[in-house]
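In response to a reviewer's request, we include the raw inputs and outputs for one of the modeled complexes. The two entities were modeled together in a single run.
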Amino acid sequence: DIQMTQSPSSLPASIGDRVTITCRTSQRIDTYLNWYRQKPGKAPELLIYAASSLQSGVPSRFSGSGSGADFTLTISDLQPDDFATYFCQHTYSVPYTFGQGTKVDIK
Amino acid sequence: EVQVVESGGGLVQPGRSLRLSCKTSGFTFGDYTMSWFRQAPGKGLEWVGFIRSKAFGGTTEYAASVKGRFSISRDDPKSVAYLQMNSLKTEDTAVYYCTRDNQDYNYYFYMDVWGTGTTVTVSS
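The model returned the following structure tokens for the whole complex.
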């Protein structure tokens, strides 16, 4: 199975900050990498697919980059709605696996 | 509006069975692979399995943790997917999510529509 290592696990931040979350995979996965945001008590929502494609309806302050085994999610100009937990996920092969999550909370 | 809605969760004793349903609307159900995921209380996300569309054989794949106990099926005319869970264990306690699986022109897969989830509690 492909292991996903996300960092940091916790990220204190303020409104307007630029934040970066990284995801490293245990083997190269091309760009089969997705990012999700999950608010407390809610289902995950897709932000970025194929490493860098912005899902329709998602604000442009979200961006993704990377290929191979190293990936990044960047949120520019952090908004109140963005205090949540973020997960990376690969769909390179089964089993699909997720990072352990990064909780972005108020500094 | 594109929607998936899970139902069928509840409290069940270890060793018993439960069937979850995923009712969809707003898209051509038969064209899509459908997946199930779960999230144990306070934990991360775990892929459970998926069923491909009939165009891709309607075949299934499962996580090792549920293989042989869980099965996924679909009823395309009703636009519903199912997760049959047998021989349930306490570690199956989780919120179960159904998703629509999409792909781009390069066949990169992603889960673009999620239901709100249904809670399964396995306890005596």
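As requested, we also summarize the result in words. The radius of gyration of chain A is 13 Å. The first strand of chain A starts at residue 4 and ends at 7.
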